[in-house]
């Protein structure tokens, strides 16, 4: 295992901190936002563009890559980095979340998850051991244990049984992972729905197994924002301070600020890329829907002070036109912009933490982001 | 008008020649292939990428831009160059070809063409004068007269009436164009279907009006390749040697070679970009359909000696995967490759003409391009 996590600066007022991950494909400053490259590409972008924006780590989805093009083919290609030509770090999830989200048949037993492909209905089986084999074939720098992401809402009884089984799966993953060897690091995932005692118990058991990093799973699945923040607060107390914390699938710019304040170091979310494809862009003044008629003769860039390729070269008028006529360049430009927005935000947050001004930065960002009336503010 | 055409080298064996156009947005070496940017973007590419490949001139479609986003909006944006952020040259067609291709209602009279939008069925009218206004609003460096592109096949009677009217429209275009003034150059378009005498008469009448360049229209609309080449041979004799000849909407790599041999200087075609979107790529060994199963474990680049971003960084395996799962990056990569292929081909053709080896180059290219059995050769 090639892994090191160092904390640079601990905010004195909040739990926010900056740090650095040392991984097989280079260093990653934390807090970090990881764009999602579901099928071996962060949608609409090239690896060169992601490097130019400044991302040092991106995600791949094990479930999707296992089905298409298959982890064996990716292994033959020299692994995921080589397959997609990305020389920096990667993280793969375990597929657990995707399988649970499937509308198709799935059956969970102690042994693992039986499921049908969303593409052709074919039957597949993910056990903790099998998922480790797949994630080793993919070869990402950080890999995740197979867990059950309990549906929301669920009974406390269900949540407890599910979380307990996820701990047993985590143990099996670790054993298999160590057998397979190599430079990859395996993270555990805390479950327990929105029940504080279950979450605390689950986190402690995972910490007992000992992973180099811990994810907080099963959030951002429909619960109230207050529940999410309460659980993250709790995790900040329970999880070891010297290990990275990764809040999976989160979130909006405001979510990033709130959860960094509560000690989270790593995030991933499809939001910047998915919204981009719907013609929605993030700006310091909130989110704007560039498709809207009011931008028809708006010759300004998406955001005045943005350094991205879209903002340096094109007007809202032009981008609106491209999106409306469904030209690929439109989605490319909104995607580049949104990813630049997220990476800039997280970079500014790191700088604010390092200079002891995080709370002030957060207050100012939120004030401006939510002030304007002519934009959607989420 | 800011326009100059100089011939560098006249091939001694064939009618092939190299030259240079001097236009408001810089020089363009001929023969030249112009990618098609129908709606203000060459599909799937950015202007930066087109510049990096080496294109000095691209096309815009007047019909499409008139409907969306509208020529008035583009004028307000500072013209098409500014709207799409392209500092090099542009050419706009007149919309005549698109209107004739419409499935919707259209009515042609001496005054112009009444037609319904393919988007919302709304009624519009293109007269020669109106099209000049629109093309002046767009502001391309080279603009085209409104013509009627006669359907294929058509009777000789229809072809004659149509071609004669197109000459009258060409005169009206020139008058309006001169009234409007400015730096744009207006090209005439020869019509006359596949009838030699009509084509000759039509070309002579257009030359009598006097344009800085002449397009050969109404070809590549379904006629035999032999008919096309015979008409182009004829045009080589009839059109003035010292003016550029532009074969509209053509064509395959072999079409380029055959028609350059017959004295054509300019080409445009959607083929490299459209095929790219269908997962078909051009190589020196013919066209290959990268979606096909046989490329599943083909870790070579699309073409071994290609310098494009796709070939320098990605395998057929990966690109096949991207195309099959409909990821935008797949189409981006095949598009970059195909455009690079076309630009490399035309550059090599220019070099061959300049060094007196065009016929040899053509023979060798065709031999390799059509030799292989495992590719489609068109």
Q: How does the SSE layout of this entry go?
A:
The structure is a homodimer of 378-residue chains.
Chain A: E1 4-10, E2 17-23, E3 26-30, E4 32-34, H1 47-53, E5 57-60, H2 62-67, H3 71-76, H4 80-84, E6 89-92, H5 96-101, E7 106-108, E8 113-116, E9 123-126, H6 128-138, E10 142-144, H7 156-180, E11 185-190, H8 196-209, E12 214-216, H9 225-238, E13 245-247, H10 253-261, E14 266-268, H11 271-277, E15 280-283, E16 286-289, H12 309-313, H13 316-324, H14 328-354, H15 358-371
Parallel strand pairs in A: 4-14, 5-6, 6-10, 10-11, 11-12, 12-13, 13-14
Antiparallel strand pairs in A: 1-2, 2-3, 7-8, 8-9, 15-16
Helix pairs in contact in A: 6-7, 7-8, 8-9, 10-15, 11-14, 13-14, 14-15
Quick description:
The structure is a homodimer of 378-residue chains. Chain A is α/β, with parallel strands linked by helices.
Plain-language structure description:
The structure is a homodimer of 378-residue chains. By secondary structure, the first copy, chain A, is an alpha/beta fold. In chain A, 44% of the residues lie in helices and 18% in strands. Chain A has an 8-stranded parallel sheet with strand order 4-14-13-12-11-10-6-5. Chain A has helices at 47-53, 62-67, 71-76, 80-84, 96-101, 128-138, 156-180, 196-209, 225-238, 253-261, 271-277, 309-313, 316-324, 328-354, 358-371, and strands spanning 4-10, 17-23, 26-30, 32-34, 57-60, 89-92, 106-108, 113-116, 123-126, 142-144, 185-190, 214-216, 245-247, 266-268, 280-283, 286-289. In chain A, helix 8 (196-209) links the parallel strand 11 (185-190) and strand 12 (214-216). The longest helix of chain A is centred in the last third of the chain and has 27 residues, at 328-354. Chain A has 15 helices and 16 strands. Chain A has 2 domains: 4-275, Alpha-Beta Barrel (TIM Barrel), CATH 3.20.20; 280-371, no CATH class.
